[in-house]
Structure formats: structure tokens, C-alpha cells
Design goal:
The complex is a heterodimer of chains A (660) and B (155).
Chain A: H1 2-30, H2 33-36, H3 38-62, H4 69-74, H5 81-86, H6 92-113, H7 119-143, H8 167-196, H9 201-232, H10 243-268, H11 272-295, H12 308-333, H13 347-379, H14 387-410, H15 418-424, H16 426-442, H17 447-463, H18 465-477, H19 482-488, H20 491-512, E1 517-523, E2 528-531, E3 534-545, E4 550-560, E5 563-568, E6 571-575, E7 580-584, E8 586-590, E9 593-601, E10 608-615, H21 620-643, H22 645-654
Antiparallel strand pairs in A: 1-10, 2-3, 3-4, 4-5, 4-6, 6-7, 8-9, 9-10
Helix pairs in contact in A: 1-3, 1-7, 3-6, 3-7, 6-7, 6-8, 7-8, 7-12, 8-9, 8-10, 8-11, 9-10, 9-21, 10-11, 10-13, 11-12, 13-14, 14-17, 14-20, 16-17, 17-20, 20-21
Chain B: H1 2-14, H2 32-43, H3 61-75, H4 80-91, H5 106-132, H6 140-154
Chain lengths: 660, 155
């Protein structure tokens, strides 16, 4: 009964989405306030219904209701509770339901949080969002119904894929989806702006927090996915240039470019056409990503291909939304007047360069991901586009961008002083060079790692050069404590510095991979292997029984200079239901580096094949992403100041003496 | 998770219950120089039955066979290029993670640079048009207003 309620709620949500897709738009066109006012409450009701459907599916998974196809195929009564809950989105139908849940969550957030927006824009945004929701609800109900029942329920389920039974899965998909789908709001804003003819600085200011929220989640989601792949897949790689990873990277790059171009639009009313285009592009790339992942077009022999209707349906959604929005764009964008004037060497000029390079990076990933598909479709010839391609194309584009980032930050708006900016960065540059030379003298090592390490130090320090100059400059001219001056700077300036420094930190982690060590060997209890500065002792090999698996666990002690500093327990798990094995890495974090160990069954009884790695500073790769997200958060908190501007201005008028 | 869901399907196909991962100690050559060469070479080759994994990383039996084959050929004194040519003759360009430079991949390799140049050109043209539309000089009325504003601030 609960399951049927969920199914029914989903159908109702579709009906509401259709209402909200039409009524507010009629209101906007006919300038009827009453019709426009429908949008927020219907959006909230839609969210409630989708949440109900999602809760019903979760209930079925938690109670192991094997009369549901979805539960039978993806669950097992002995599966731990946490994986019964996360398993809801560990399959096609459930993950699409999560997709729509987040879509309607964002609609609800705009319905509540956007009350200060112009009424017509607010209504139009929610209407466009409902169009998207309606399309995907239809997709779920017609091709991917998670509530399908079985006439003869089996006694036991087929269990969730062991790779997905991991805490990382609990966090990664919701984070990624919040980012991926969060960009739908940006898209809806762009379409609404085109419909209402409100393409101005106010629009840019209104859309910024939503883009930031999506960007923060996307950043964290990608980092989390990368870390999950790192410790689950068993050999310590963290980025594979896999099409599925690229599918999430492309919207991230587009969203990053959008954040930067929207700043120009907000501050200077320039780049309006381009910003709108990027807003459309970012979500279009999300949709393309969904198509790539969900249609099975990349893995034609695999699971999703058994139902080609899904692929065709998503393709139709894709064509409708991307084509429709671009048509709207083409019809409306011509009416835009050019904005503020700026010199080539200026903050605006730097941001244009940023957008040029980021767009090219994004296009490179796009071409690399889809070229093999296109070539195979046209000529039947199969090629692979792997990491070496991106190392030769993406990396040479991205690294110069990193070098330019601190310079751009110190350039003034309208007309900048390149020489002056360069002078402010001498300290950062010197530090980078010093670190590079020191590392060369100390470790030697691959030249690319040396360059990356120097670049990262320069980037981290250089990101704060602008803030430092501003704080010291104020301290020199205005009285007051240094902290007071630091606190007086806008938080978005700190956000920029943190986000850029985060990229530097990730680069540092990447650079350090060049100084790692690895050892692959057969080990028996008592064997010692040295990897990097550490010795690893295999102390015992033993069996272990989990709730739905059996495992072989190797207990290893880590020693530094003869002193034991910790232990790791790498394992191989065997899941009998699916007849699948999975490696469970043993990881010990030492400062920012990690000892990474993995085992597999040995060739002789009583031994294991072990892979031992020392990965110095490896956590910086993901830590950098967290710092980037913190930067985003910092910038987001600046929004309160913006909303409060009018109120504070009134206060200042009431007490003019407080102004100084 | 998206990677995982895609991976999930292939792993079921590619993994036999006896789990072996990537390069195993038994496969490795005793000469560390030759072994490093073998690992570098196999890292650039695609495991044909996996999704975007190299021969060096893969658990699949096919990857194991190719790893052993590469090492045998290296011991027999073949160069990296010879071994690669042998594998391409057998499996096609699909096995190379770095696509070869030829007519079919011309657009793939040049696209990033063509796009960068096109973008830069478009921006240059837009900037030139913008320059002609640069703000005109201040009118007499604006000048006097500016002067009075500046005077106000000084006073």
C-alpha cells in the first residue's frame, strides 16, 4: 500500500509539474499576477509529493519488500541498514528518482528563497523548472518505474553490487546530483531571463548564489567520487578520464566559467550574452552527462542497453531542452545592448581570458569523450581516448591558466596595470621558485613534478597577494587594527582567494605523486617490505565474516625507523550472492600522505599478493577541493550583505556620523 | 556513483570469482628496468573488455594474458614500438589509450587548438567592434557638473 502511495504521488507530481509549466507562463505573458502567484505553492507541493514517493521507495528497500523488482534486483535481507538506504540510489530507477527529488528540492528552495525576486522572473524560473521536472517524471513513469511489482516475489534479493556497498556511496551521488541538478536552476534562470527580457546586472546578482551552491556541491561531489574510486577500485588511481567522470567534469568547468563571467555581468553589465549562453550550456552538459551515463551509449554491451527506450527518451529530453533554450537564446540575445567598456588589460579582460581557456578545456573534454562514439557511428572504426590524450591537450591549457590566476586577481577593473600586478606577485613567485629548487636539491625527481610543485606554491601564496596588499594598504592609510581591516574586506574576496588556493593545493598533491613509491610482491606472515621511508610488516593473514560477505584480511604493521606507527588491514571480500570479489584497501594517513595497501589471493597457500604504496601529500588533492568548496561557501555568505544593502543604507542615512 | 554503476556492470562480466588484481608478483620480471618499461607500456594500452582501464590496472584475464605477452616479447628483445605494432595489428587502434595521429583522428587532436584560436579570434573581433563604440568624450555640461562635484568633495 505504501509503495502504491509512492507511485501515485509520483503521478500526481507529474500532473502538478504540468500545471506549473503552463499556468505561471500564461501569467507572465498576460501580465496576470494571480496566475504568476500559483508557481511557488505548486512547486512546494510538487516537492512534497516527490519526497513522498522517494520515502516510499526507501521504505520498501529498508523493509526488504521483495515484491518490488527494484528491491529484488538491488537488495538483500542481510545487507546492512545503511546500504539498504543508500542502495535506493545505487540503481538506475532509484537514482533517477533522486535526480527528480533534487530537481524539485531546488524548485522548492527557489519558491521559498526567491520571494524578493521580481514576480515575473520568479514565476518564469519556477515554470521552466517544472518543464524539466515534468520531462523527467515522465521518463521515470514511462521507462524506469521504480515501483513495479512482481507477481511471484522471490524469497531473497540479488544484493547490491559489492562495489557500491561502501560509505563513499552514501555521500557521493547525492553530492554530485545536488551539483549536477542544481545547475538546472541556473538554466531556468537563463531561460526565464530570456522570456521576461530581464537580462541585466540584477539577474546576474540573483543567479549567483544558486550557481555557487550548485558549484560547491559539484566540486565536493567530484572530489568525493575521485576519493571513492581511489580507495575502492584497489589500485590507488584517483582520476581515470573515464567518460562517466568527464560527464561530471564538463558541467563543473562550465559552471566555473559561468561564476566568473557572471561577476563581470554583475559588476559591469558586460558579457551578458555570453553569460546567458554559459548558463544554458552548464545544464545542457549536465543533461548530456545524464544521457551518456543513463543511456548506456558508452557501454553498449552492458546493463542499461537492454532497454533502448531509455536512451531514446533521454535523447529526446536533451534535444528538446538544449534546442529549445538555444532557439530562445537566438531569438532574444540580439536585442541585448553591449555593456560597460573595458581595456584588454583589466579584471574584465582577465575574466574573458579565463572564459576562453575554460571553454576550450571544456570543449576538449567534450570532444575527447564523444569523438570515439562519433567515429564509430560514422566509420565503424573504434579508437580509445585515454589519459595520454588529455595530458597532451587539457593539461597544457589548464596549467597556464593556473599561472595567470593570481595575476588576474590583482588586476583592477576597467583598466589594469600588468607591471604593478606582477610586482605584487614577486614574493609568491620567489617562494614557488625556492620550493622548486629546494625539492630539486633534496629529491630530484621528475621535472613535471618540480614544475607543478613550484606552480602550486606560487598559486597558493599568490591567491592571497591581493588580499594582503589591500589589508596592508588600508592599514597604512587608515587607523585601526589590522584584523579590523582584514574583516572589512568583502567575503567574496576571501572566497576567490580560498578557491584559487584550493586549486593550488590540489596541484601540490598531484605534483607529489612523482615522489611516491610502490612495491608489488608476494608476502607471507613475517615478511617485511620497505616502501618510501616506511617498513611494512605482514603480521598475519586470517579469515573474516561480514554480514553478507566473507573476507581474507591481512594485518600489516607500519614501521618508521624500527618504531611501529600504525597498522592497516587490507582485505579481499567475497560476496556469495553475486559471486563477486572486491578488494578493500588498507589506508593509513600520515601527515598529508598515505600508506596505501591492497592484497589479492596469493599464488601459493598462506601467502598474499600485496601492493604497497607510499603516496606523499596525496590527500592534498581532495583537501584542495574541500578548500575550493569552502571558498565558494565564503563567497556565498557574502550574499547576506547584498540583500541587506538597502536596510543598511537606511541605517546610515539615519545616523550619518557613523559613516566614517 | 555514476562511474560505479557503469563499472558495476563490467565487473560482473570481467571478474571471475578467483580475484586477481592488476599486475601480480608472479607476472613481474626480475629485471627492474625491464619491468618498469613493461609497466609503462601496459599503462598506455587499453584493457579491451573493461571500461576505460589500462592493461596495467585491469583484473581481467585478457589483461593478464597481454601483460605476460608484453613481458615475454620484451625478454625476447623486442622494442616498445614493435610490441605496440604487434598489438595494434591484432586488436586495432582501440587498444591504444593514446589515439594515433592519422586522418580519422586529425579533428580530435587539433580540436582544442582550433577552438582556442577561434575563440581568441572572436574575442579580438568583438573587442575591435567595442573600441569603435567606446564612450565619447564628456560634453560641456557633463564637464561642468564633474567640476562642481569635485569641488564639493574638496570643500
Amino acid at each position: 500500500m505504501i509503495v502504491e502511495t509512492g507511485h501515485f504521488a509520483l503521478v500526481l507530481a507529474l500532473a502538478l509539474a504540468l500545471v506549473n509549466a503552463a499556468v505561471p507562463l500564461c501569467g507572465v505573458v498576460g501580465r496576470d499576477q494571480r496566475l504568476m502567484a500559483v508557481a511557488p505553492s505548486v512547486a512546494l507541493a510538487g516537492f512534497f509529493l516527490v519526497a513522498l514517493a522517494y520515502a516510499a521507495l526507501t521504505y520498501a528497500h529498508v523493509t526488504s519488500d521483495f515484491s518490488l523488482v527494484n528491491v529484488v534486483e538491488n537488495s538483500h535481507s542481510a545487507k546492512p541498514l545503511i546500504y539498504k538506504i543508500t542502495g535506493v540510489w545505487g540503481n538506475h530507477e532509484g537514482s533517477m528518482l533522486l535526480w527528480v527529488l533534487i530537481l524539485s528540492l531546488f524548485a522548492a528552495a527557489v519558491a521559498v528563497g526567491g520571494r524578493a525576486m521580481p514576480v515575473d522572473l520568479h514565476a518564469a524560473v519556477l515554470a521552466v523548472q517544472s518543464w524539466i521536472a515534468a520531462a523527467f517524471l515522465l521518463f521515470i513513469l514511462l521507462t524506469s518505474n521504480p515501483f513495479a511489482r512482481l507477481a511471484n516475489p522471490p524469497i531473497e534479493g540479488q544484493d547490491l553490487n559489492p562495489l557500491l556497498q561502501d560509505p563513499g556511496l552514501a555521500i557521493h551521488p547525492p553530492l554530485l546530483y545536488l551539483g549536477y541538478v542544481g545547475l538546472s536552476i541556473t538554466f531556468s534562470f537563463a531561460a526565464a531571463a530570456l522570456i521576461c527580457g530581464r537580462i541585466d546586472a540584477v539577474w546576474a546578482r540573483l543567479v549567483r548564489p544558486w550557481t555557487l551552491v550548485a558549484w560547491i556541491f559539484l566540486t565536493l561531489g567530484i572530489a568525493m567520487g575521485s576519493y571513492w574510486a581511489y580507495y575502492t577500485l584497489g589500485w590507488g588511481g584517483f582520476w581515470f578520464w573515464d567518460p562517466v567522470e568527464n560527464a561530471s567534469l564538463m558541467p563543473w568547468i562550465a559552471a566555473t566559467a559561468l561564476l566568473h563571467s557572471a561577476t563581470v555581468m554583475e559588476k559591469r553589465e558586460a558579457l551578458k550574452v555570453w553569460t546567458i549562453f554559459l548558463a544554458i550550456l552548464a545544464f545542457s552538459l549536465s543533461l548530456i552527462g545524464t544521457f551518456i551515463v543513463r543511456s548506456g551509449v558508452l557501454t553498449s554491451v552492458h546493463a542499461f542497453a537492454n532497454d533502448p527506450r531509455r536512451g531514446v527518451f533521454i535523447l529526446a529530453i536533451l534535444v528538446f531542452f538544449i534546442g529549445g533554450s538555444l532557439l530562445l537564446f537566438a531569438l532574444r540575445a540580439n536585442a541585448l545592448k553591449p555593456g560597460g567598456f573595458f581595456a584588454p588589460v583589466s579584471r574584465e579582460g582577465a575574466l574573458v581570458l579565463n572564459n576562453l581557456v575554460l571553454s576550450t578545456c571544456c570543449a576538449t573534454v567534450f570532444v575527447g569523450t564523444l569523438y570515439p562514439l562519433a567515429l564509430e557511428a560514422l566509420t565503424g572504426e573504434k579508437i580509445s581516448v585515454g589519459a595520454p590524450f588529455y595530458n597532451l591537450t587539457f593539461v597544457p591549457l589548464f596549467l597556464p591558466l593556473c599561472a595567470l590566476m593570481p595575476i588576474a586577481q590583482t588586476l583592477a577593473w576597467k583598466r589594469g596595470d600588468l607591471l604593478g600586478s606582477a610586482q605584487r606577485l614577486i614574493f609568491a613567485f620567489g617562494c614557488g621558485l625556492a620550493v622548486m629548487l629546494a625539492l630539486f636539491a633534496w629529491r630530484g625527481g621528475p621535472s613535471i613534478s618540480l614544475v607543478l610543485a613550484g606552480l602550486s606554491i606560487y598559486l597558493i601564496i599568490g591567491s592571497f597577494a591581493d588580499l594582503a596588499t589591500r589589508i596592508l594598504g588600508r592599514a597604512a592609510t587608515v587607523k585601526g587594527h589590522l584584523f579590523a581591516h582584514a574583516f572589512g574586506l568583502p567575503r567574496s574576496a576571501y572566497g576567490t582567494a580560498l578557491a584559487h588556493a584550493g586549486i593550488g593545493l590540489s596541484l601540490l598533491g598531484l605534483a607529489a605523486t612523482g615522489w611516491g613509491a610502490q612495491k608489488i610482491l608476494a608476502m607471507k606472515p613475517g615478511d617485511v617490505a620497505s616502501v618510501g621511508p616506511y617498513d611494512i610488516v605482514l603480521q598475519s593473514i586470517g579469515p573474516q565474516t561480514g554480514p553478507n560477505y566473507t573476507a581474507t584480511v591481512a594485518h600489516m604493521a607500519i614501521r618508521a625507523g624500527g618504531v611501529e606507527i600504525g597498522d592497516v588491514d587490507p582485505a579481499v571480500r567475497f560476496y556469495p550472492t553475486r559471486q563477486v570479489s572486491r578488494a578493500e584497501a588498507g589506508i593509513k594517513t600520515i601527515d598529508f600522505g598515505q600508506i596505501y595497501t591492497g592484497i589479492s589471493d596469493g599464488d601459493t597457500p598462506g601467502s598474499v599478493n600485496a601492493r604497497l604504496y607510499w603516496k606523499p601529500l596525496v590527500t592534498c588533492i581532495w583537501f584542495g577541493a574541500v578548500v575550493m568548496a569552502l571558498g565558494g561557501l565564503c563567497s556565498l555568505s557574502d550574499r547576506r550583505l547584498r540583500i541587506g544593502v538597502a536596510r543598511r543604507a537606511r541605517k546610515l542615512a539615519a545616523a550619518p556620523q557613523a559613516a566614517e | 556513483m555514476m562511474r560505479a554503476v557503469a563499472l558495476a556492470s563490467f565487473i560482473v562480466l570481467a571478474l571471475t570469482p578467483s580475484f586477481a588484481f592488476a599486475v601480480t608478483p608472479a607476472e613481474m620480471l626480475s629485471d627492474p628496468k625491464l619491468e618498469a618499461r613493461a609497466e609503462a607500456l601496459s599503462a598506455g594500452l587499453r584493457c579491451m573488455v573493461c571500461q576505460n582501464e589500462s592493461i596495467d590496472e585491469s583484473d581481467a584475464p585478457l589483461a593478464h594474458d597481454i601483460r605476460v605477452l608484453i613481458r615475454q616479447k620484451m625478454l625476447a628483445g623486442e622494442s616498445d614500438a614493435e610490441i605496440r605494432a604487434f598489438l595494434v595489428a591484432r586488436y586495432g587502434d582501440f587498444i591504444l589509450l593514446k589515439p594515433p595521429w592519422k586522418a580519422e583522428t586529425f579533428l580530435l587532436w587539433t580540436a582544442p587548438f582550433l577552438l582556442l584560436l577561434t575563440g581568441a579570434g572572436a574575442i579580438a573581433i568583438a573587442a575591435r567592434q567595442r573600441k569603435t563604440a567606446a564612450p565619447s568624450a564628456l560634453s560641456a555640461a557633463e564637464k561642468s557638473k564633474l567640476a562642481s562635484l569635485i569641488g564639493e568633495e574638496k570643500g
